[in-house]
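Sorry to interrupt, but I need a hand with the structure work. Please put the record directly below this note.
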Amino acid sequence: MCGRAKNDLKSLLTSIEDLREELHDSVRQGRNTLDPLVLKLSQDLDEKLNRYYQITLKTSNR
């Protein structure tokens, strides 16, 4: 994996952790799991996790 790809992956992991924390905090503060904000955060997290999976799958197949 080249330097830029490593930086991109590190940035993606940071983004995943930030979204996970924000989602967790929103629910812990009493927001319902069907709240539009919670749903948006969950969808955004899913997209980032899927992207992470795609990147790691590509690099492991090399």
The radius of gyration is 14 Å.
